[in-house]
Design goal:
Length: 703
């Protein structure tokens, strides 16, 4: 086993493959998800959604529905409890969709207009579907790809820098021997977690309890407390098992509706969403339109770099898919310009979806780099090597570590890149054209303050408590390994308890920051506990507990460019008779910090890469312009890559421990998808000689 900097002195568990600690419970069905748990007196809520894209709700005709079998109540704008969404949460201002039933305005199709609560889910659904809502309709606009005079440069979106600029772009473009000026589009895409959103709310002894499926129980608890003007200590949110999240599982309308109904009825109420409702209620990735201009010398050195990205948001809230962000990290140029603009439309507000901004941004940017390599007559990897920056291209800050070239080197070796004939459209096997492509990947490596508690139990075991979320990634197992090493005990002696807001503040599972942030807190608490135990003495029946809070330590980190990196490779075949693109193999090599559990890390990387394949070839939510509604809001019409679409995918990594992290972690949640679609699009170009700048690369676009 290799020892890397910044790691615990004694390493047993971290770095060795470990099956999920809850794996047996999951495959035997013992693991209960939010929709599975029984509660006495449980009532069931069903959301009714608007069917018009813009206007006012004139009337919710609830009387006939209230008389239907089993119906307990119908909540709507006329009778629902009041909420107060005038707050700034962990991730900024809340999406006003949480203010449902508070007013008569309809900003999109699929806005919650009523909640029908009944004794059974079937009764609630039947009544909700029978509910008549009258509207005063207004003209709407849901057409993102039309020209857009209303487009503006956003301000004040958390985590989004709208625009960066250095140097004289037009002058450098004019001085460039080679110029690429190309426009790219990506469609609206949806998270589609396997487990749809579900929440149960009840009042119990003066406390509000929510059993949920989310990415951060403390996050959801804090926002619920603010929304309902409750003492934060009186709200408890738990989320034991989560079947996928990808950015969609924060506070969404169903938890709010469940709390409203539980408050009105004084009994537990569960609201579960259908797959179709997810398409309206839980956020999505905005479509993007991007223009990239690159100017270079003949040897490939970049003089001019310009990435302009546009995304959509709703008319009630600003969310920016900041696709122009990654060029601020990847490539330098004498003149460098990036800008994210946004256009408000009569649609639901988009939200974070795996590798927000960077996933569509990398499709455009890494395609443009490939186009530039072609124009310069250079190998695409050599072009990237030529433009490897010394420090942050925009910030000027040093990189904490940057091993993107090591990824390309290792990837090229394993993929067999050296044998590649760069000429496009010349390899054919029967009716198939063959091609290979590559792309760079990067994603920010962040960390946020968290707290943890570690207890030495009298029986010689240890219990860790932290409000972490395991959204299916294996975080619970990773933290078990981290705790075991910090305690210098076998992982079998560590009991990991997560996803209960009563365990105290901790960052949500998002932005590839969860495991790193929680591992830091767990390590700190475990280290403190070992110091206490070293003093000797018996362990009392209640155990000995040490707590940590990483606020000061995280705050003391020096400012650096901190990122994970990677190199993606793909081989495709293109059927010249049907236009079908099939991916034969993919390889991703990542430099993404210390890998805690190779087994689940590999799954996460190839999951992201599979999603990149899906993005490249399949995924596309389509809105009917006339009604403003989706025409394919289900997994039959919205095609997510299935097993038959997914070829041999390999993911591996180079040694890249973060020098400033106690465990060496950087975070791996997002980076698997970054660049994957571009590698496939570049391979399609190599196969056919045709550049596809609009996703997905559907058969009708290929022919
Ligand atoms: Mo992620 S899109 O940060 O859940």
């Amino acid at each position: 086993m290799t020892t890397t900097t910044g790691t615990a002195a004694v390493t047993r568990a971290v770095g060795a493959a470990h099956t999920r600690v809850e794996g047996r419970d999951k495959v035997t069905g013992a693991a209960r998800y939010a929709g599975d748990l029984p509660f006495a007196e449980l009532a069931h809520g069903w959301l009714a959604l608007t069917t018009v894209a813009r206007g006012r709700v004139r009337a919710v005709e609830s009387a006939p529905v209230r008389a239907m079998p089993g119906v307990l109540t119908v909540l709507h704008q006329g009778n629902a409890p009041r909420v107060d969404a005038d707050y700034t949460g962990v991730l900024g201002r809340p999406d006003p969709i949480l203010e449902m039933f508070q007013h008569d305005r309809v900003p999109c199709v699929g806005w919650p207009v009523a909640l029908v609560v009944a004794e059974t889910p079937e009764q609630a659904r039947e009544a909700a579907e029978a509910l008549v809502v009258r509207y005063d309709e207004e003209p709407h606009d849901v057409d993102f790809f039309a020209g857009r005079p209303g487009t503006y440069t956003p301000e004040g979106s958390p985590g989004v820098q709208a625009e960066t600029e250095k140097g004289d772009l037009e002058a450098q473009l004019a001085a460039s021997a080679v110029v690429v000026d190309a426009s790219y589009t990506t469609p609206e895409e949806h998270h589609s977690p396997m487990e749809p959103h579900t929440a149960m709310a009840r009042w119990d002894g003066g406390r509000l309890e929510v059993v949920d499926s989310n990415q951060g129980s403390m996050w959801v608890a804090e926002e619920l407390a603010k929304l309902f003007s409750l003492d934060p200590a009186s709200v408890r949110v738990r989320s034991e098992h989560v079947g996928g999240a990808f950015g969609a599982k924060g506070l969404r309308p169903h938890q709010v509706a469940a709390v409203m109904a539980a408050t009105v009825l004084r009994r537990p109420v569960r609201v579960a969403l259908t797959r179709r409702q997810l398409f309206s209620l839980t956020g999505y990735r905005s479509p993007t339109a991007q223009r990239i201009r690159l100017g270079a010398d003949l040897d490939g050195r970049l003089r001019a770099f310009d990435h302009q990205a546009r995304s959509q948001t709703s008319t009630v809230h600003e969310f920016v898919e900041h696709s122009a962000a990654l060029g601020r990290v990847l490539y330098d140029a004498d003149a460098h310009h990036t800008v994210n603009r946004v256009v408000p439309l009569d649609v639901p507000t988009p939200t974070w979806m795996r590798a927000p901004g960077v996933a569509p941004g990398s499709f455009a940017l890494e395609s443009a780099l490939d186009e530039l390599a072609g124009k310069c007559g250079m190998d695409p990897i050599a072009l990237r090597t030529r433009n490897e920056p010394e420090s942050g291209p925009v910030s000027g800050l040093p990189f904490s570590s940057r091993n993107v070239l090591a990824c390309f080197e290792e990837g090229a070796r394993r993929f067999g890149w050296a044998e590649r004939d760069p000429r496009p459209g010349i390899r054919r096997q029967g009716r198939w054209l063959l091609g290979t492509g590559t792309a760079a990947a990067t994603y920010p490596s962040g960390v946020a303050p968290s707290t943890a508690a570690v207890t030495a139990e009298a029986d010689g075991t240890f219990t860790v408590r932290i409000t972490a979320a395991d959204v299916g990634t294996g975080a619970r197992t990773a933290l078990t390994l981290v705790a075991a090493d910090a305690l210098e005990v076998d992982p079998g002696r560590v009991r990991m308890r997560i996803a209960d807001s009563d365990f105290g503040p901790a960052v949500l599972a998002g932005g590839s920051m969860g495991t790193r942030s929680w591992a830091w807190a767990v390590t700190a608490a475990a280290t403190g506990l070992r110091e206490q135990l070293a003093l000797g003495g018996d362990i009392p029946p209640q155990g000995i507990t040490a707590r940590s809070d990483t606020t000061a330590a995280v705050g003391a980190l020096a400012k650096k460019e901190r990122h994970s990196f990677g190199a993606q490779f793909a081989e495709v075949t293109v059927d010249v008779t049907s236009g079908e693109v099939r991916v034969r193999r993919m390889l991703g090599i990542f430099a993404a910090g210390r890998i805690v559990n190779p087994l689940t890390a590999r799954s996460q990387f190839i999951g992201g890469m599979t999603w990149g394949l899906s993005m490249a070839l399949h995924e596309e939510a389509i809105r009917d312009q006339a009604s403003g509604a989706h025409v394919n809001a289900d997994l039959a019409g919205y095609h997510v890559a299935a097993h038959a679409d997914v070829p041999l995918i390999e993911a591996d990594w180079v040694d890249d421990p973060d020098p400033d992290d106690p465990v060496g972690i950087k975070g791996i949640g997002e980076i698997g998808i970054v660049g994957a679609a571009a590698a496939i699009a570049n391979a399609v170009w190599h196969a056919t000689g045709i550049r596809h700048r609009d996703l997905p690369i559907r058969p009708d676009r290929v022919l």
